[in-house]
From TrEMBL:
EC number(s) per entry: 2.7.7.101
Function: RNA polymerase that catalyzes the synthesis of short RNA molecules used as primers for DNA polymerase during DNA replication.
Cofactor, free-text remark: Binds 1 zinc ion per monomer.
Catalytic activity: ssDNA + n NTP = ssDNA/pppN(pN)n-1 hybrid + (n-1) diphosphate
NCBIfam families named among the record's database cross-references: dnaG
Pfam family, one: DNAG_N
Family statement drawn from the similarity comment of this UniProt entry: Belongs to the DnaG primase family.
SMART domains for this protein: TOPRIM, ZnF_CHCC
Catalytic class of the enzyme: transferase
The gene coding this protein: dnaG
The keyword Protein biosynthesis is annotated on this UniProt entry: no
Name of this chain's protein: DNA primase
Annotated ranges, domain Toprim: 262-338
Keyword Nucleotidyltransferase: yes
Species assigned in the record: Companilactobacillus keshanensis
Length: 605
């Protein structure tokens, strides 16, 4: 059993970690003054409001309010406990981790989600063992090896084999006392007409599906028998930990490569991703459905601005590529197409032509969407026939008119003109007429377009408005954290903050002691609850001068100490309005005297 991680090790990890390096694995960060900004990974937004300060080693989202240090980020992003987050950050920084500090959790007495994650992890290990170490898995291993999937790739992707046994996995978890309710929730089992559970996956090569953090959340099982009447692939049903609209196969492995290559390659099948990975093309992913969802696109937008589609080169693959291009109209991205020659799928092409040739195709063979679409149109028309020529020209102009770059327009107009043996001037005249026609239609559609654009923008930076008292509390707490002498002065005068959230941080600060560097600041934050971490990060992100003045501090303290008086003034003003409404002159006179006395007290303070 793991021992408690000592403070010395936490401090070592903190001092050797740069929050920008860690968070860059999840968010595409760009320098903005002294800080870094990007799209928040915790909610959808179009305008970056997620800010990371390298100087203070904090992050804060000005939209959703989340904030904290590197451990808080990992805890929220990957659903880890604090000790697990420390270990994860240490691994990222290649900091040696003593065995006694490992935080592996071998029991199932946690939330359902954590139990399901553990079950999927152990299922993958079991299937991998059967594939590699048992006679039962030998034919599945032979199948994979025939497809050039070696032990290294099997290990990287934790591939396995589910034997043709209806209750092997079921018995495995029953022996571990997993409840019937959890077994049914897991998605690992189906049930017969009598309501009895049996293993969902049988006689299939098992491909684990991971979430962005690398946790196994589902499986895709591929049949070995080509002549079988059952589906070629069987995927896990949706569960508490798996939603196919959110997950992208191989994203957890591909994130670094996507950032390094500044693009992501979208493949059609899992085997294509595996083959590409083995060939050195490691920035590939595959969706769990026919097209990318808004959630998947948002996830990718945090990593890159370029999506390249690499589907099969046969007719169905070309049709799928065309459909994808017509559906991928998200303005956050530019798009490209990698067309696989000889009507092969990427896996076939790699096995027949070799890794080097495929890598060259990926690097140098990216077409623009318009180039692919023009080639797609050519496949559907007989350009020796005048009617088809005119149809091809009309279709081509409908695509070219969407372009905004004059250079692109001129290039593709020239290409079509040469192919159709007509002048560029005549095509440009047709384009002008098409633009005028579109402009006439635009006013009727304008409101819908504007509404759609506004609806797509989900980010509004919070404009938190604080009254004079709370502004004083925020500023005073900021300075108190940074300057120990202020803390000593407040403590000596038994000072109290008005709002409970600021008072809690203040009390934690008194118990913690002085904060002299980023490591101690991070340690202080680790002891706060979730709301306290968010608030502390928000305070530390405030734009403040390097030094305070004594008059400034006195003003803050005075405002806070007089908060009760100001509250009473506000109450009396409300009572005065009500007394005036009912015409109670006597009460108005009494309230006015009270108001004068209170204002004298405020002035004297």
């Amino acid at each position: 059993m793991a021992t408690r991680i000592p403070q010395e090790f936490i401090d070592e990890v903190t001092s050797k970690t740069n929050i920008v390096d860690v968070l860059s694995k999840y968010v595409q960060l760009k320098k903005a003054g002294k800080n870094f900004v990007g799209l928040c990974p915790f909610h959808e937004e179009r305008t970056p409001s997620f800010t990371v300060t390298e100087e203070k080693q904090f992050f804060h989202c000005f939209s959703c309010g989340r904030g904290g240090n590197v451990y808080k980020f990992i805890m929220e992003m990957e659903s880890k406990t604090f000790p697990e987050a420390v270990i994860e950050v240490a691994k990222m920084g290649n900091i040696p981790i003593p065995d006694s500090y490992q935080t592996e959790n071998t029991n199932y007495q946690n939330s359902d989600s954590r139990t399901l994650l553990k079950m999927y992890e152990e299922t993958a290990k079991l299937y991998n063992h059967i594939l590699l170490k048992t006679e039962n898995g030998s034919h599945a291993l032979k199948y994979l090896n025939q497809r050039d999937i070696d032990d290294g790739l099997i290990s990287t992707f934790s591939l396995g084999y589910a034997p043709n046994n209806s209750d092997l996995l079921l018995q495995f978890f029953k022996d571990r006392s997993i409840s019937e309710n959890i077994l049914r929730k897991s998605g690992l089992f189906a049930e017969n007409q009598e309501g009895e559970l049996f293993d969902r996956f049988r006689d299939r090569v098992m491909v684990p599906i991971t979430d962005e953090a690398g946790n196994i959340v589902a499986f895709s099982g591929r049949i070995l028998d080509k002549n079988a009447s059952t589906a070629k692939y069987m995927n896990s049903p949706e569960t508490e930990i798996f939603s196919k609209s959110k997950v992208l196969f191989n994203l957890s492995n591909a994130k670094k490569s996507i950032r390094d290559n500044q693009n992501v390659i979208l493949f059609e099948g899992f085997m294509d991703v595996l083959s590409a990975y083995k060939s050195g093309v490691t920035n590939g992913v595959a969706s769990m459905g026919t097209s990318l969802t808004d959630q998947q696109l948002y996830t990718l937008s945090r990593l890159t601005n370029q999506i390249n589609i690499c589907y099969d080169g046969d007719d169905p693959g070309v049709e799928a590529t065309y459909r994808a291009l017509t559906q991928l109209n998200d303005e956050r991205f530019t798009y490209g197409v990698i067309s696989v020659p000889d009507q092969k799928d990427p896996d076939e092409y790699i096995r027949s032509e070799g890794s080097e040739k495929f890598s060259g195709l990926v690097k140098n063979g990216v077409q623009t969407p318009i180039s692919f679409i023009l080639n797609y149109f050519r496949r559907h028309y007989n350009l020796n026939n005048e009617h088809d020529q005119l149809e091809f020209l009309n279709q081509s102009l409908q695509e070219i008119v969407k372009l905004s770059s004059p250079v692109e327009i001129d290039m593709y107009v020239g290409r079509v003109a040469d192919e159709m043996n007509v002048s560029k001037d005549s095509i440009n005249k047709e384009l002008d007429a098409l633009r005028r026609s579109n402009a006439i239609k635009q006013p009727a559609e304008y409101k819908d377009i504007q509404r759609t654009a506004l609806g797509g923008s989900t980010t509004t930076v919070r404009s938190s408005k604080f009254d004079r008292i709370e502004k004083s509390e925020r500023c005073l707490l900021y300075w108190t954290i940074s300057f120990p002498e202020l803390k000593a002065n407040l403590k000596g005068n038994n000072f109290q903050f008005v709002h409970e959230n600021y008072q809690r941080i203040y009390e934690s600060l008194l118990a913690f002691g002085d904060i002299n560097d980023n490591t101690e600041m991070s340690d202080f934050m680790n002891g706060l609850d979730n709301d306290g971490k968010n608030l502390l990060a928000e305070l530390e992100m405030m734009q403040m001068p390097d030094e305070y003045t004594e008059q400034e501090i006195d003003d803050y303290i005075s405002n806070i100490n007089n908060s009760d008086l100001e509250s009473r003034v506000s109450d009396i003003n409300q009572q005065l309005k009500q007394a005036a409404m009912v015409g109670d002159n006597k009460l108005q006179l009494e309230l006015t005297k009270q108001l004068i006395d209170l204002r004298k007290l405020l002035t004297s303070n």
